[in-house]
Amino acid sequence: MNKLYLWGIIVTIAMLGATYLSVGMSKGGINGDIVNMLAIAGAVALVIITVFVVIKYVRQMQTDTAEGELADESWDNIGEYKNPLPFGWAIMFLGTMIWGMWYMLVGYPVNAYSQIGEYNEDVAAHNAKFNTQYASITGDRLIEMGESVFLAECKVCHGLSADGIDGKAANLNVRLEANTVKHVIENGSNNQLLGSEMPMPDRNGLFNMNSGALITDAEIAAVSAYVADGMDASNKAGAEAFAGVCASCHGPDGMGMEYVAPSIAAFNPTLVTNVLNHGKKGVIGTMPAFERLNAKQKEAVGAYITSLSAK
Amino acid sequence: MENRPLGYDYTVAKMFMLTTIVLGIVGMLIGVILAFELAFPSINTILGSGLAEYTNFSRLRPLHTDAVIFGFTISGVFATWYYVGQRVLKVNMAESPLLMFLGKLQFWLYVVTVAAVVVSLLAGVTTSKEYAEFEWPIDLAIVVVWVLFGVNMFGLIGMRREKSLYISVWYYIATFLGIAMLYLFNNMEVPTMLATSAAGETGIGSWYHSVSMYAGTNDALVQWWYGHNAVAFGFTVPIVAMIYYFLPKESGQAIYSYKLSLLSFWGLMFVYLWAGGHHLLFSTVPDWMQTMGSIFSIVLILPSWGSAINMLLTMKGEWQQVAASPLIKFMVLGSTFYMFSTLEGPIQAIKSVNAIAHFTDWIVGHVHDGVLGWVGFMIMAALYHMAPRVFKREIYSKSLMASQFWIQTLGVVLYFTSMWIAGITQGMMWRAHDEFGNLAYSFIDTVTVLHPYYAIRGVGGLLYLIGFLMFAYNIYKTMTAGKPLEKEPANASPMGA
Amino acid sequence: MFHWLEKNPFFFAVGVFVTIAFAGLIEIVPNFAEASRPVIGTTPYSTLELAGRNVYIKNSCNACHSQLIRPFKSETDRYGHYSLSGEYAFDRPFLWGSKRTGPDLHRVGNYRTTDWHENHMKDPAAVVPGSIMPKYTWMYTNLADIDTAFAEQLTVNQFFAVPYNKPVPMKDGSTTVVKMGGSVAEANALALAEAKEIVKDMKDQDVKDAVASGKIPEIVALIAYMNSLK
Ligand code: HEM
Ligand code: HEM
Ligand SMILES: [Ca+2]
Ligand SMILES: [Ca+2]
Ligand SMILES: [Cu+2]
Fold first, then answer.
1. Chain C nearest C-alpha distance from B328 (Å)
2. Which residue has the CA at smallest separation from atom 43 of ligand 1?
3. Which of A119, A168, A169 sits opposite C71 (nearest CB)?
4. CATH architecture of B11-192+214-481
5. Domain residue limits, chain B
6. pTM for this entry
7. Interface subset of C 164-223, CB within 8 angstroms of A
8. CB of B349 closer than 6 A to ligand 1?
9. What is the pairing mode between strands A207-208 and A213-214?
């Protein structure tokens, strides 16, 4: 076999093999996605056509001889043959022009296609599939789904292991950290954590029903540590302050009360959903709202976050 | 023959040969730095964090593109024009002192403009439009340089002894007109110093700052009408002009077909301008413009391939020359890469393919197939061919040229294969949804997978740069130490061992 | 006919010019007026935002970041609603970009926040491990060019009728007015007021001090611009 063809085949196989490997390794892959398949087909066509057309002309360089009638002129001694157009080239040029005309005038006349229309169809199809396949997911599958949302959307702030990257965002492996609790007590909180406007007062509105006085610095320090440590009863001062100041709204166990105050003892999907709906501004920084997630995705990521600190 | 001038004056050609080489080294060196910055981000602060403002990827990137386009390539166009123009028109520049003066003026003004560009881009003075980053004072200088170029071109044409224009001259004329039209319209901007505040203050803020005449989608349309055709009239048309002269001249072969030249030329002129829409697929420009961009891109394969085929057929029956001369190898492989990128481009212009390819490294791969394999190879070949005739000496070393050829070929192959894989991988990862219908990857996952490909690209680019330095050295040695030639070689350039 | 042209450079050049010029006319002109109309809810940039936009341009962030969300499910999932032509009506120049080495930023204001940008711009890889984005540490000390941003507002207002100090319709039926200073001093005061709001959410003490003393570092302007991208 001619050495050229051998090289042509080697180049082709190398390019396509490398592409296959890289595509095969990614999760999306070809997976019946028409766009992916067309891109790969294009890449394949590109290599094969170029390699074999070039081989054709190299063969001509190797075997043919130059001949034909020369034109009269010669520019700096460069001559010019009056050879006819290469037939294949001429036909294809004409062919593509006719195809272009046909495409614009007959095939897909101006405005026959709308990219937004296509997008809407695509989204509708996706949503229909989503509703039949995933809308009823629960339990571990729900948590898995939530993890997938977390890894795509949340890890840039909260970190791969949800630890908040050194205090750059909330550490989601624990419900609350002491500085957040302290900040909220001192400044109040107004983040619609219950899903609707229901602020928590700042320290000037927090009475200790046992002492009958406004909450004190010592009580704030104690109760912050108490909440952050997961309400460990060995912290007596904290427990007392909690019972006196916080329990009336957050419940004696801190698990929250509907319409009154959110749970500060544990995460639950509703709380997370509320954070995702309204965002949250606190001592660490600002957490953006996530309008582009749907209700199921929010519930799922809520379940995932709940599972992190439940262990 | 009596009609022929006794000699040609290459003063201006030599000047631009110098800037071609110097700016080529600068531009490609920055390219290599950029490539390694993407693979190893710590290189962004290579000169310390105090200077990081001037060494980081984003400040340097426009400097790379502008140095290789307006520096390396355009210098190459000027250098070859001031060589080829005289010869195919049968005039000597020295016959007109005015043209000589304007040619030198053009060169010095060009050098000053380049210096201003380097300083301003490093300082972050840019309008952000790709390949049209310069603020209006530099635009004005560029217009003057370009007009001087045009005056020279048409001046020489006006003085010609050869009545009919050679194919290369068609392409040079088109280069001049095309760039002039595109550059002017894309750079329409209003200097902000013209505004007056309610309190009557004027000349507020930086004097060189301006705002584009066009807003949003319109600005995008004008920009990519420009950007696409800057490729046409900067990276294609003048390079075709070069190959139509240097390949037949070096090989001593006659052009395969006049008809093919003619149809390719007018076909290219007509079709190219319509294809710009392929840079705006799935954007907010109307669907019909995008469709036109796709269709004309496909049609464009043929006029592009026409010239490449014409060149390959010119070498028909001359395989021994391709095998023997590294100079001819550069040109033959150049046409091959030209065919590759003008087939790759149209494929990327198909809407569904562009949905994946756009915004990814596959486009960067496509760019460098063209610029490294076609533009770079052709300009180096042209200068190699010119050197013995301009300096009246043998090319210093043939074996150095041959090694350079293989090193750079390997460099180009590493560059485009790695970017091809990187682009397709990234494009598919962006689109991927997982089993739950969520996005499968966060953005950063699609960045970290590219690391090996970025590293390979860096190596490929480094090889290309090394080859370019070998080229610069070879030309330098030719000038200073090449064996002197008694008379000008008719064809095959003489080369030392 | 062609041989004749090839002997007549003037007509040859005219022929080339006509061939290349009219495609531009047909492709660009028809949609020109249509594309420049803002969609409801698009407001002109404030002085500080514009100064931040110029910081973005100065550092060629557009070399790595696009601002164009294409109408694909995968992109609207990642970045939000696909981009609309009228949203760019006040963008001079446009900043769509042509390479996504980093993510699209057209709506980044919806899902990233001041404190996050503050951490991220200083050291991207510390926030997003594996990030290849450069550190932009000098933005924390270089001062933003408010005067030029003001000159730019005046220019677009006077030459292109961009509506400053005028009610602009919003999506909910209300209107907003984006203020532009009457003098350089007034413009600087407006920008400073806006900067003060932003540094409230920032932690870098040097930046806070600078703003407190009336100076505006580039990072503050840039964050104002990032937050305006919605
Ligand atoms: C038939 C000819 C060609 C066609 C139809 C074509 C088509 C394309 C397409 C579809 C893109 C990508 C646009 C995007 O999605 O961002 C592109 C980009 C590009 N091409 Fe080509 N191409 C052709 C030939 C060439 C050649 C020969 C060169 C250089 C020698 C070249 C240089 C470029 C450059 C520099 C870009 C990048 C533009 C940017 O900054 O985004 N093209 N081309
Ligand atoms: C030593 C060889 C070179 C290397 C290593 C190199 C590397 C690079 C890199 C890393 C980029 C940025 C890609 C990105 O943003 O992801 C780039 C862009 C670019 N380079 Fe080069 N380059 C080289 C030579 C050249 C030459 C010789 C030319 C032109 C004659 C050229 C023209 C361009 C253009 C037009 C772009 C912009 C592409 C786009 O926006 O899509 N490069 N190059
Ligand atoms: Ca400009
Ligand atoms: Ca680009
Ligand atoms: Cu193009």
1. 28
2. B345
3. A119
4. Up-down Bundle (1.20)
5. 11-192+214-481
6. 0.94
7. 201
8. yes
9. antiparallel
Among all bound ligands, the one having the nearest atom to the CA of B137 is 3
**N residues, chain B:** 497
- Interface check B291 vs C, CB under 8 A: no
> B235: CA distance to ligand 4 center in Å?
15
> Which chains have at least 3 CB atom pairs separated by less than 8 Å from chain C?
A, B
Q: Does C153 touch chain A (CB under 8 A)?
A: no
Q: How many angstroms separate the alpha carbon of residue B310 from the centre of ligand 1?
A: 22
Phi and psi at B433, nearest 5°, equal -110, 150
Residue with CA at minimum distance from ligand 2 atom 19: B65
Give me the helices (H) in B300-376, please: 301-314, 319-324, 326-349, 351-357, 361-368
What is C47-228's CATH topology? Answer: Cytochrome Bc1 Complex; Chain D, domain 2 (1.10.760)
Q: List the pLDDT tens digit at each of the 497 positions of chain B.
A: 446 667 899 999 999 999 999 999 999 999 999 999 999 999 999 998 889 999 999 999 999 999 999 999 999 999 999 999 999 999 999 999 999 999 999 999 999 999 999 999 999 999 999 999 999 999 999 999 999 999 999 999 999 998 899 999 999 999 999 999 999 999 999 999 999 999 999 999 999 999 999 999 999 999 999 999 999 999 999 999 999 999 999 999 999 999 999 999 999 999 999 999 999 999 999 888 899 999 999 999 999 999 999 999 999 989 899 999 999 999 999 999 999 999 999 999 999 999 999 999 999 999 999 999 999 999 999 999 999 999 999 999 999 999 999 999 999 999 999 999 999 999 999 999 888 889 999 999 999 999 999 999 999 999 999 999 999 999 999 999 999 999 999 889 999 88
Q: Which atom of ligand 1 is closest in space to residue B296's alpha carbon?
A: 5
- Asked if A78's CB is within 8 angstroms of B88's CB, the reply is yes
